[in-house]
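Predict the 3D structure for this chain.
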Amino acid sequence: MARFEEVAASGEPVSLARVVERAVKVLRAQGILAHPTDTVYGIGGACLVEVDSRVAALKGRGVEEFPLVRIAADATVIQSSFPALEWNSWAEVLADTFWPGPLTLVLDDGTGTGVAVRVEGHPVLGSVLRAWGAPISSTSLNRAGESPAVTSIEAKRNLDRMPDAGIPILLVDAGDLPGPPPSTLVSLAGAEPAVLREGALPAESILDCLRGIRRS
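Done. Predicted structure below.
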């Protein structure tokens, strides 16, 4: 089972500064962060190949089977961190309308697969990301084929089901989260926008927002 420490980010009294300090320390050490999001608990770390591989091992899949989402505090961090991304007019409109929030965009990066990016709306993770100053890679906190964690109890249970990573893992306990569905996944890498997974945001809302807007 994975060995982990936890820090409370809910209840009274809570020092957000202390939570952020511990989380950033783990990220700098190339450790793993189990963290809240707008919908469910996630697990991830610094955007490094070796960290992605560790998260994939915890998840129980190869990293090539499920590319991790890059999560940042705001769109400018995504743009500066991934300059190869095609930040087209569709991305600008959707980011302005729905970020921060449960919308993941797949943008073309010239590789043929694209990169999935999101600006996080959960206040605790948002504070961590602002202090970190860069994106993190993340996926849902569960073993492959199992349900994502919605409560802190489920987060701890899912971590217990994961193998020992031999590296620092910190659970940021933010209590109960809104739960599934997860973020809506939209690809803007093709000739037309495509909703790959309908989640917390209705597909109709996404497509209505883009109606009449040409890609440029």
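The chain is about 30% helix and 20% strand.
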